[in-house]
Design brief:
Blueprint (H helix, E strand, L loop, with lengths): L6 E5 L6 H10 L13 H11 L3 E9 L2 E8 L13 E5 L3 E10 L1 E2 L6 E2 L4 E4 L3 E3 L5 E3 L6 E17 L1 E19 L2 E4 L12 E13 L2 E21 L2 H19 L5 E11 L3 E13 L1 E5 L1
Length: 294
């Protein structure tokens, strides 16, 4: 049993799925259960790099009955800009400028200025004066710089007092199956699974083997079901406020990219007979500069 590969570990892949790579490898004759001395690691590396040009680096090693494939994918090709083409940096939104640094071009706004979407922040045109005070014009440049801006937003949502919630019954059911050589066998002889109508499920796979480096082609699949019922409930005012806080925190995570800095936030409530009307006031900051060719 120790002369065969029983587990293939793929690490470092993001755009490539394990299933896709395993399917390709199987077509090339590499699969769980293969006699490990038949594997030509160098040839497998070449085949994977040829099939998937997004692989930047790959390492394949054997350890016991495991085959480890570690890869690093190429980053997305960024669009190269021609710095010889004159362009301005304009504002991508209405806001207040909080910071501006120009590496090339002429800043036309300063920190604290209010700007609107499309306003020029760093100009490609520079005009100077000579020693006599006469204007001197220079050729337009490709503006390069960083401009950050601040703005305010308001998010509104309702938190009704009446709601539904889960109530666990403390009833639990555990089903087992066995995976042998990649094929699953139901050892419970229960075709339709749990008898519970509403449940949460937790799956756990137990890999059998002599050690972590010597797994065997036997996996115990443990599937646990926890029964619950749905009941009608009513929040207290404090519970509704806590729910509003959690909703606001979730909106900050899901609705805004990580690049946006939250400078200030304030949550206010208006109580009604049916619940709370919540308003989240935000002060946000982010990069606002965008290139615009002349």
């Amino acid at each position: 049993m120790s002369q065969f590969i029983w587990l293939i570990d793929i690490n470092g892949n993001c755009g490539l799925s394990d299933a896709e790579m395993l399917r390709f490898m199987k077509n090339k004759g590499i699969y769980t259960g293969i006699y490990k001395h038949k594997i030509d690691i160098n040839s497998l590396k070449e085949d994977l790099c040829r099939e998937y040009p997004q692989i930047a680096w790959i390492s394949i090693t054997q350890n016991g009955t495991r085959l480890f494939i570690d890869i690093s994918e190429k980053t997305e090709n960024t669009v190269t800009t021609d710095n010889s083409v004159p362009c301005d940096i304009i504002s991508s939104r209405d806001c207040i400028v909080s910071d501006i640094v120009a590496q090339s071009g002429t800043p036309v706004v300063k920190s604290g200025d209010a700007v609107k979407k499309g306003d020029i922040l760093i100009s490609s045109v520079f005009e100077g004066v000579d020693e006599n005070g006469a204007p001197i014009g220079f050729a337009p440049v490709h503006s390069i710089g960083s401009v950050r801006g601040r703005w305010q937003e308001k998010l509104s949502f309702d938190v009704p007092y009446k709601h539904t919630e889960k109530m666990y019954t403390n009833k639990k059911e555990t089903l087992y199956s066995l995976t042998l050589f990649g094929k699953n066998f139901n050892i419970n002889f229960i075709k339709n699974g749990t008898k519970f109508k509403k449940y949460d499920r937790i799956d756990k796979d137990i890999q059998l083997g002599f050690s972590p480096d010597y797994p065997l082609p036997f996996v115990i699949n443990k599937r646990m079901f926890f029964e619950y019922t749905i009941r009608e409930a009513v929040y207290t005012q404090k519970q509704a406020q806590r729910r509003a806080e959690l909703t606001a925190a979730k909106k900050l995570i899901t609705d805004y990219p990580k690049t946006i800095a939250v400078i200030d936030k304030r949550l206010e409530y208006i109580q009604t007979k049916d619940g709370l009307k919540a308003s989240l006031f935000l002060t946000l900051e982010d990069e606002i500069g965008a290139e615009a060719q002349r």
